[in-house]
Amino acid sequence: MELDGRVAVVTGGTRGVGAGIARAFLRAGAEVVVCARRPPDRPVADAGRAADFEAVDLRRPGQAADLLARIAERYGRLDTLVNNAGGTPYRRLGDGGPERHARVLELNLTVPLTLSLAAHPALRAARGSVLMIGSVSGTRPSPGTAAYGAAKAGLENLARTMAVEWAPEVRVNTLVLGMVRTERSHLHYGDAEGIAAVGRTVPLGRLAEPADVGEAAVFLASDRAAYISGASLLVHGGGERPAFLAAATANKPPEPPERTAPPGPTRPTGPTDPEENRDGTV
């Protein structure tokens, strides 16, 4: 129970990746608080224990500080903050207007900053850690989710700066996620066959499970990662195969049939060009 006695907060922790992280922390022995705007259909639980739930809209001024005050009163400490809450609808840059893009930036970048600042005194006292949940969308073009990709790129940079400014008391790291199979995967990839087909495009042959992300999160929060700060850990199954490889394979001309050379005199072995004799002999 490597997190036994520690307290962790997971934003957006009632479903999907957040719930996977919360369950992994519960299995590791931590006391876990999950927060979201609406309560889950059933408690987030694992290993015979359940996470506490806090209803909060972190985009509303003051609610981050109120949340941390309640946790301090209830538990007396905070060891890990997991900034998981985020997301975006599919929206081209020219659609929806700048206000909608600004809300995506707020949820995915400003909220983690605000909550981390509110949590800093408690984390510093516990010599704890912040864990940002990033995305491969922050490291490559993100058509249809441009504001989200920009926010995730900024989040990774924010984590690295926090790691410098808040050292040595607080460690700050980022999990950079690829595609994860959650309750909503069917909205993006279709039925089970479609999800499996998308998974086969990943080098490891499948989408990540929330539990995969949870185990990586536990590692970065634990003493095993005591010297890891300012790091970005890729949890993407090997990434994405470059598109040009598929195109090259599809258009590759067939190999010519092998030809068997007629028998002839035996050729001498070894170099025949004096330039190949590196010791200068001929």
UniProtKB/TrEMBL annotation:
Taxonomy, superkingdom: Bacteria
Pfam families: adh_short_C2 (PF13561)
Biased composition (Pro residues): 259-268
Region (Disordered): 245-282
Signal peptide per UniProt: none
Keywords: Oxidoreductase
This protein's name: SDR family oxidoreductase
